[in-house]
Each structure stands twice: as C-alpha cells, then as structure tokens.
Amino acid sequence: MDEREARMALCCAVEPGSLDATAAVAEHGAAAYLESLREPGSRSRWARRARVLDLEQVRRATRSNRLRFVIPGDDEWPDALDVLASGEPVQQMGGLPFGLWVKGEASLAGLTDRAVAIVGSRAATAYGQSVATDLAAGLGVHGVGVVSGGAYGIDAAAHSGALATATPTVAVMAGGLDSPYPPGNATLLQRIAGQGLLVSELPPGEHPTRTRFLSRNRLIAALCPATIIVEAAWRSGARNTVSWASACGRIVLAVPGPVHSATSVTPHRLIRDAEAVLCTGVADVLELVGPLGRQPPSRPDQHRRLDDLSADELAVYEAVPARGEIGTGELSLRAGLSLGGCLAILDRLSDQGLIGHGTDGWRLIGRPVTRAGD
User: Fold this and answer.
1) Residue 348, number of CB atoms within 10 A of its CB
2) Residues sharing a CB contact under 8 Å with residue 154, sequence separation 6 or more, in sequence order
C-alpha cells in the first residue's frame, strides 16, 4: 500500500488529533503504522477499525462526492499546517493531520496563504454577526480570505461577508463532506464549495462529535497567521480555537462588545489578560498580518485646524459665540487679553478663514470644527 492510501486509511481508522498515532506516523511512516494496527497482536484502540476498513468504499465515496484527498507533500498542502507536528497539544489533542478531504476547485494552499480565521459564538448577537460580516467583507476588498467553521452565528456571518465581496472562503468541517452540517447551512456551504473550499480530515460518511469539533479547531487556527474572535461565552469552541492559535504561535485578535453581554466575556477577558490584540476593524487586522516592509493601511487623519493655534489664539476663537456676533471689547474681556493683543489675533484668525467681521461684530465662519461644549 502506498503512502496516500495508507494515510487515507488512517484518517478512517484513527480519530483526528490522536497524539500517539501522529507520533507513530512521524517516526515510522503511515504505511508501517497502518500495518502494525492490522497485525493480530495489536492492542491499539484503533486496531479493530483498521482491520474492518473497506478502503475501496471510501475511494468510491470520495469520487462520487467530487472530493479529493490531499496529503503532506502535495502542491496544495498548506505548509502552515506543519506547525502542528511540533506544537504543544491542547486538551490532549494535536498532531499533523494524515490528510484532508477537499471540495472545490481552488488550491487549499493558495486560498489559505493570505487568509485569517474568524470564529465566534453560534448563538451570536446581531452586533456580533454584523461585525463578523463587515470584517470579512472589508478584508476581502484587500485580498485577504477568511477561514472559519461553517457553523451558525459568527462562522456563517464571516463566510457570508467574504462571499459578498467575491472573496474565496474556506470552511473547515468536523464531519464528512458528503453531508452538510449543520443542515440549516446547506445552501451556504454549497456556495462556499463553489467559490472557495470545504475541508475535513474525516472521510465521507462520518458525523461530527464534540471531540471532532475540538480537533477540527486546530486546523482553523494553524491554517492562518491570525485568528479573530468576535463573540464567545467563557466556555466555547471559539475559545478552544484561540488556545490552538496561541499554541501554534499565531496572532490572536479579539473584538470588544457590550460589557453586559455574555458573548463578550471571552473577547474582553483575552484583551484584559493580553492574550489578544484589540480589534476594532479591518485596519487593525491588516496592520498585523500585512507583509513585512509593507506600508500599513492609512487611518483617518486626526489633525484639526485648531491644533495649530497658540493658547491665546485658541482662547479668542473659543470666545466667539457659536451663533450671532460679538464686539471686539467684549471678546477681549472673555478671552482675558488686552484689546490690542486681541485685535492682532483676530486679524490672524480672519486671515485663516476661521472668523469674519459682520455688521455687529465678529462671528464664526463655516463652523469648520466642533468645539468643546458646542
């Protein structure tokens, strides 16, 4: 049996994220480890699965569902996943996947080379869904793709935001790609497969379980240089993805939310404990994941015309009423300046187009800025 077939068989026989199995494959190779599982004396928990496996049936299901099986060394295998071979385990899981089933026309390595993960609560608020959609759409405008888990809530909002800007997006699933999960997202997952990719390390016919969701999260985190958590309760799958991102040495960003919202607990805690960088928009993400040496995205100019005024000039300007006109004498009194000094400043402010002289005195021109107290 060749390496590809052995890895496909191991994906069917061994639960994802098994530390002992991935270590054995790293040391002895996939074919040798599979053969050891099939030996009559094997006491491995995966031995029975390996012996009864009908690999030809798996191949047929792969072909009939228009899937392909990708393994390390293939052109479209993402090098970013290699960090899992040596990274720290999370909840006693870890290791490089033996292979991945992929659905869609694009290259997995190509789509994830410049992408970020966006994760969060399934029970997302309208605020969280709006933020996730806007982030994904805004990143798409800058050519940055999105990786998520295809679930309800934040995942679905992130995928939808990417699709809205015709940006390829990748959904990493916790079950076989022959059956959409959750069923309510079937249409969305079909769109993702058409414009991006569906990915799973489980063969067709396998259903999601709690542990499979947790092991799936390591792929989402490892595939991208950064993971953004939008909303999540204290104990959640999204929090688990953040743990994987940290274990893989990836950047973690967290979106703040209402302080009374239970779904803001995890993002706020991560920011407070310096486990995540505050994320308020696309510019924050691009600044962290952009190539070294690239000019960071421009931010709104915070400079105001009044910033260039001296203290006395600002005092005179602030003394001019928001509405109506004021005489020079009253103005000098309000500003606390001599009449001559006030006149000189009024001339300068007038030359700058900030104030003008009307019928009954001085007045503001055009309200160029908002002043304190206005």
Assistant:
1) 14
2) 118, 119, 120, 121, 122, 124, 128, 129, 132, 148, 230, 231, 238
Report the pLDDT averaged over residues 70-93: 94
User: What value, to the nearest 5°, has the Cα angle with vertex 181 and ends 116 and 173?
Assistant: 40
Residues with Cβ within 8 Å of residue 300, at least 6 apart in sequence: none
Could you tell me the two tokens for 93? Answer: 């899981």
pTM of the model: 0.81
Tokens representing residue 240 in the block: 């688990």
Residue 78's CB is within 10 A of a number of other CB atoms, namely 24
The pLDDT tens digits for 116-165 are 999 999 999 999 999 999 999 999 999 999 999 999 999 999 999 999 99
Q: Which of 110, 119, 160 lies closest to 140 in space, CA to CA? A: 160
Alpha helix positions (H), the chain: 3-13, 19-28, 30-38, 47-52, 55-64, 108-112, 126-141, 154-164, 186-195, 210-223, 237-247, 265-272, 282-289, 311-319, 328-335, 339-351
Find out whether 134 and 161 touch, Cβ atoms under 8 Å.
Answer: yes
**Amino acid 290: pLDDT:** 72
160 token code pair: 């939808």
Upstream peptide bond of 208 is cis (omega within 30 degrees of 0): no
